[in-house]
Design brief:
The protein is of the alpha+beta class. The protein has eight helices and six strands, in the order H-H-H-H-H-E-E-H-H-E-E-E-H-E.
C-alpha cells in the first residue's frame, strides 16, 4: 500500500533541505551549469517550481502541462531569474502542492501525467519526492546520491526497475546491492540474463541516468544500455 500522507511529509522535508541548500547560493552561481546537460542551476530550479504546479494540475484533474512546448518555454523564461525570485517561487509552488495534497480526495483514482502516462493518484506525492531529491543532486551543490534517504533510494530503485521491466531492448537483469535484489528487463526465459551489483547509490544513479554505471559489477554479460526515461 502506498502511504501518500507519509510521502507528502517526505516531500516537505526534502523541499526544506533543498531550500536551505539553494539559499546558500548567489545570483552568479544560479547561472552556472548544473549536472544536467544544457541546463543551468536556474533551469533546474525553474523546472522544480513549475513541476510542483503541474502536479497540482494532475491532482485537481487538469492537464499536467498545456503542452510540451509550453513546459519548455516556461523553464527557459524563468531560468535567468535572481536567486531570491527562485527561492520565493520554490516556496510558494511547494506550498500549493502541499495544499492540494491535503485536500480530501479519492487517492485510489487514476490520474493522467505527461504523454498519456497514467498512475494512481496515491503515487503522485512520491513522484514529486523523486523530482525534489534527484534534482537537488543535479544542482551540484554537495548533495549526492549517497545522501538520499535510504527508504527513498530503495523505493526509487524498485520503481525504475519496474519501469524497465519487460522492455525488449533491456536484457533480463538482476540488480542487487548484496542484500536486496530487483529484476528488470526482458523475462528470464527470453535468453540468458546479467547480474548487476553495486551500492544503492550507484544502482540508482545508473537507473536514473545520473551515473555511467562504471562503479557497478556485471556478471553474465555487459552492462545493459538503458532507454531514456
Amino acid at each position: 500500500m502506498i502511504d501518500h500522507g507519509h510521502d507528502l511529509a517526505s516531500v516537505h522535508a526534502a523541499t526544506e533541505r533543498l531550500l536551505i541548500a539553494v539559499g546558500k547560493l548567489d545570483n552568479a552561481s544560479v547561472t552556472q551549469p548544473s549536472r544536467l546537460p544544457g541546463w543551468t542551476r536556474g533551469h533546474v530550479l525553474a523546472h522544480l517550481a513549475r513541476n510542483a504546479d503541474a502536479l497540482v494540475n494532475v491532482l485537481e484533474g487538469r492537464p499536467m502541462y498545456v503542452s510540451g512546448e509550453a513546459r519548455d518555454a516556461d523553464i527557459e523564461r524563468d531560468a535567468p531569474r535572481p536567486l531570491d525570485v527562485h527561492l520565493a517561487d520554490l516556496r510558494e509552488s511547494a506550498a500549493r502542492f502541499q495544499e492540494a495534497g491535503a485536500a480530501p480526495a479519492d487517492w485510489s483514482r487514476t490520474v493522467e501525467l505527461r504523454n498519456g502516462v497514467t498512475d494512481s493518484a496515491s503515487r503522485v506525492p512520491f513522484r514529486r519526492w523523486v523530482e525534489v531529491e534527484l534534482h537537488h543532486v543535479d544542482l551540484g551543490t554537495g548533495y549526492e546520491l549517497e545522501d538520499l534517504p535510504a527508504d527513498f533510494t530503495e523505493r526509487e530503485i524498485a520503481f525504475l526497475a519496474d519501469r524497465f521491466a519487460g522492455h525488449r531492448d533491456v536484457p533480463s537483469t538482476r540488480l542487487t546491492d548484496g542484500t536486496r535484489a530487483w529484476s528488470t528487463g526482458r523475462e528470464a526465459d527470453d535468453g540468458p540474463g546479467v547480474t548487476v551489483t553495486g551500492s544503492p547509490a550507484d544502482l540508482l544513479g545508473w537507473l536514473a541516468g545520473r551515473r555511467s554505471g562504471a562503479a557497478l559489477t556485471v556478471d553474465g554479460g555487459a552492462l545493459p544500455a538503458l532507454p531514456p526515461l
